[in-house]
Design a protein that fits this description.
Blueprint: H1 2-15, H2 20-32, H3 35-60, H4 68-85, H5 91-120, H6 124-144, H7 178-194, H8 197-207, H9 209-214, H10 219-246, H11 257-267, H12 272-296, H13 302-329
C-alpha cells in the first residue's frame, strides 16, 4: 500500500514539473535528517499515536468511531481548565490531574455515542461526527466569551500554570515527555486487547455480536466501554498537545490529528505495534512535507494525497484478500 501510494504520488510530482526522487529525498531529510527534525517528527507522531490507539480499541469491537477529533478537543478543554484553576498545585500533582481531566473528558464524550448505540441502536458514525461539531463550536464559544484571556485581543485562554508544562526531553527542541506517555500507551492497549478478559470480550463482540451474546458476554456493556476507552486515549492526546506544545487552549489546536488517527489505525492493521509504525510514518509526512515544499517547490498538500492513496490501497488490499479467500474456499453449500 505504501509503495503504490508513493508510486502514484510520484506520477503527480512528475506532472507538476518536479523530480520525484528529489522530492522524496527532501521529505525524508526534513523528517529524519537531523536531531531537531526527528524530534519534531516525534512531536507530530505523539497525539496521532494516542488517538489511533484509542480508535484501535473501538474498531476491534466493531464500532466505527469518527469522533477522535472532538474527543481530543474536549480532553484539551478539561485539561486546560485544570491547568488554569488548579494552578496552585505542585507540578508533580498538577500534571497527573490534568491527564485525568483530559482522559475523563474524552472518555465521557466518546461514551455518549456508545450509550446511544448500545441502548437505542443509533449509528455511532453519525453520533461521533455530530459530537465533533458540538465540541468544536463549544470550545469556540468558550474562547470567544468566558475563557478568553484578558484583555481579549485573541480567542485563546490564559496560559496553564508553568509547573503544568510537560518537560522537554531534548534541549532546543519541542520534544516533551508526552512521547513517553504515547509509547507506554502502546503496551497498555496491547495488554487490554490481548492479555485481559475485557479485551477478549471486546474482540469477541467485534467478531460476532450474536455469538458473543450467546456465550454470555454483555454486548451492550462492551460497546460503551470500548468507545469510552477510545475517548480516554484521544482525550490524553488533547492534554498532551495543550501541556506539551501550546500551554493554552486555542481554536484548532488539535490540527485534525483525530482524523489522521483513523487512517493510522487502519494502516496499522488495528494492532498497537502496527499503529506505532503508521503514526511515525504520518508524523514524518507532516514534518517532511514542509522541507519538500521549500526545496523542490512541491506543495505540502501532496501529503494529504499520499495519505488518501495509502488508505485507498489498504482497503483494496483487504478487499482482494477477502475475494481470494472466497475463491479458494469455493461457494458455500446449502446448510453451511
Amino acid at each position: 500500500a505504501l509503495l503504490l501510494a508513493f508510486l502514484v504520488a510520484a506520477v503527480i510530482i512528475v506532472f507538476s514539473g518536479a523530480n520525484p526522487l528529489e522530492a522524496y529525498q527532501s521529505m525524508f531529510y526534513g523528517a529524519f535528517g537531523s536531531t531537531r527534525s526527528f524530534a519534531e517528527t516525534l512531536v507530530k507522531t505523539t497525539p496521532m499515536l494516542l488517538a489511533a490507539l484509542g480508535l484501535t480499541i473501538s474498531y476491534r469491537t466493531g464500532l466505527i468511531s469518527v469522533g477522535a477529533e472532538g474527543q481530543m478537543v474536549i480532553g484539551g478543554l478539561l485539561a486546560t481548565l485544570a491547568g488554569i484553576y488548579l494552578g496552585i498545585l505542585p507540578g508533580i500533582v498538577l500534571v497527573p490531574v490534568m491527564m485525568l481531566a483530559g482522559m475523563l473528558g474524552g472518555g465521557i464524550w466518546a461514551a455518549i455515542p456508545g450509550y446511544l448505540k448500545a441502548k437505542l441502536g443509533v449509528s455511532e458514525v453519525i453520533n461521533t461526527i455530530m459530537l465533533n461539531y458540538i465540541a468544536y463550536y463549544l470550545v469556540a464559544y468558550l474562547l470567544d466569551v468566558p475563557l478568553r484571556e484578558p484583555p481579549g485581543y485573541f480567542p485563546q485562554s490564559a496560559q496553564i500554570a508553568r509547573q503544568a508544562w510537560l518537560p522537554h526531553l531534548l534541549q532546543g527542541t519541542r520534544l516533551h515527555i508526552g512521547v513517553i506517555f504515547a509509547l507506554v500507551s502502546v503496551f497498555i492497549v496491547y495488554f487490554i486487547l490481548w492479555r485481559s478478559p475485557l479485551g477478549y470480550q471486546m474482540r469477541a463482540v467485534g467478531f460476532n455480536q450474536a455469538a458473543a451474546r450467546n456465550a454470555g458476554i454483555k454486548v451492550e456493556k462492551n460497546l460503551v466501554v470500548a468507545l469510552g476507552l477510545s475517548g480516554v486515549f484521544a482525550g490524553l492526546a488533547g492534554m498532551v498537545e495543550i501541556a506539551g506544545i501550546h500551554h493554552r487552549l486555542l481554536g484548532g489546536f488539535s490540527s485534525e490529528y483525530g482524523f489522521d488517527a483513523m487512517a493510522i489505525a487502519l494502516l496499522g492493521k488495528l494492532h498497537p505495534a502496527g499503529v506505532l509504525l503508521a503514526a511515525l510514518f504520518f508524523g514524518a509526512l507532516r514534518v517532511g512535507a514542509n522541507m519538500m515544499q521549500r526545496t523542490v517547490q512541491v506543495p505540502a498538500s501532496l501529503v494529504f494525497v499520499i495519505q488518501g492513496l495509502v488508505i485507498l490501497f489498504v482497503l483494496i488490499d483487504e478487499l482482494l484478500r477477502n475475494y481470494v479467500i472466497r475463491i479458494a474456499t469455493g461457494p458455500k453449500r446449502e446448510g453451511e
